[in-house]
Amino acid sequence: MQNIPKVKLGIVAVSRDCFPIELSQKRRGKVVEACQSQEIPIVEIKVTIENENDALKALQEIQSQGVNALVIYLGNFGPEGPTTILAQKFDGPVMYSAAAEESGKDMINGRGDAYCGMLNASYNTGLRKLRPYIPEYPVGIPEEVAKMIGDFQNIARIMLGLKKLKIFSFGPRPQDFLACNAPIKPLYDIGVEIMENSELDLYDIYQSAAGDKRIESVAQDMAKELGAGNQYPDILNKLAQYEVALVDFMEKNLGASEYGIFANKCWPAFEKYFTFVPCYVNSRLASRGIPVSCEVDIYGTLSEYMCACASELPPTLLDINNTVPYDMIKEAKGQVGNYKFNDLFMGFHCGNTPASCMANHAMKYQLIMHRLMEPDQDPNITRGTLEGQIRSGEITIFRLQSTADTILRSYVADGEVLNINPKSFGGIGIFAVKEMGRFYRHVLIEKRYPHHTAVAFRYSGKYLFEAVKMLGVEDIAFNQPAGMLYPKENPFSK
């Protein structure tokens, strides 16, 4: 995957000066060995922190090693002040973990009391208004701590990506999609840059790319990817020109940022001037970790990018679109299994889902736009979608969104795409999320979320949930299990 950070983990041990420093150092070494056995690369910082001067020495070593995500490990009780000073001064995501006691045969000199020390470290973290990652149960033996570090690696990738991210938007939101409109102020609050541009700017950069020598090779790559699904070979050069133009614009305008994504106007004027739909190009860029959201959905593309960082796989953006007919559920009873009718929905969009995320794919035309723009004639300006059935397997749906009064909130739910023919058009699949019906009513409708959801093609809920917490978002919704009522759910309904 391009356009997402490479995480370089480091681990530093802390030691309360009235405890044996060797205990913390020895335990740190065992955690590093456990990480190696689990194929988690990590740099062992040799300075062990007992006081503030040690914290500064450790920070120098951390910086010299190029570490950008730090595990602070309480091998014993640990000094709460120096521990949190290091977390405060380190310029990157931080995780706290602590050592469990190892054996009943050594509970005098071998007892570290890190279980207790974690409480003090947490309190001091609050005093300094820090938001480190603290696992659900942060105390463990080396193999357990290594597993926590593996989770942190995925969470840190999200945080590092957001820190160096710039969103490029083109055009205002379409009139009937005001749901995608939201204030941009919260983007700055979490360190994300944004550069807003007009549709005329988009057309200008496209026109300026005409004749670029790379267009032919990009068109050939498109033909190779499409294979037998290349139904409109005559428009590949136009699409390639658009792709070259977007990538060039991003690279020239990143400025102080390292990663770029797009939120672009894609209809209705787009087709009349560009003479194609941009969906297939959007899918190709998403496959490289550069999501391009439809309908200038700024928070949609941000959510897609977070999914890409969490999963290290291409994401997509879909409408939470339509119900699954009862007769289709009955026909596919074996695939539906124990899911209820309202656990299912169809996720759909015009054709922006990467080819690697689909069971089959072909370039087609946008049927809905064709009805509007080219009625009673062969498709022309509405060609350029990538359509097919979304591949079955595990997924996470996710969105980070600003309210109208600039408060960030989020939702996340793990689920799966079922291997059932959706019998429809576009990039589409049948999604299953446990208790989706209640989630739809009491989260998506109740909290007025837009119709777009970002999709990660690997279970990523654990990582996205923690990353959003680290951003300081307080309202994080999930699909609550049966028997766990939402705040406004009617307890008397059946």
Question: Can you describe this structure?
Answer:
It is built from 17 helices and 18 strands. The model has no long low-confidence stretch (mean pLDDT 95). It has 2 domains: 154 residues, Rossmann fold, CATH 3.40.50; 315 residues, no CATH class. It has a 6-stranded antiparallel β-barrel. Helix 5 packs across helix 17 and helix 7 crosses helix 9.
Q: Which features characterize this protein?
A:
494 residues; alpha/beta; Rossmann fold; 2 domains; six-stranded antiparallel beta barrel; five-stranded parallel beta sheet; 38% helix; 20% strand
Describe the structure in brief:
The chain is 38% helix and 20% strand. The chain is an alpha/beta fold.
Provide the structure class: alpha/beta
Number of separate strands: 18
Q: Ends: how far apart?
A: 46 Å
Helix content: 25-40%
Taken together, the total number of domains comes to 2
SS field, number of helical segments = 17
**What gyration radius follows from the Cα positions, in whole Å?**
25 Å
What is the mean pLDDT? 95
Strand content: 15-25%
Low-confidence stretches: none
Strand order of the main beta sheet, please?
10-11-16-15-14-17
Tell me about the largest β-sheet.
6 strands, antiparallel, barrel
Taken from the alpha-carbon principal axes, the silhouette is globular
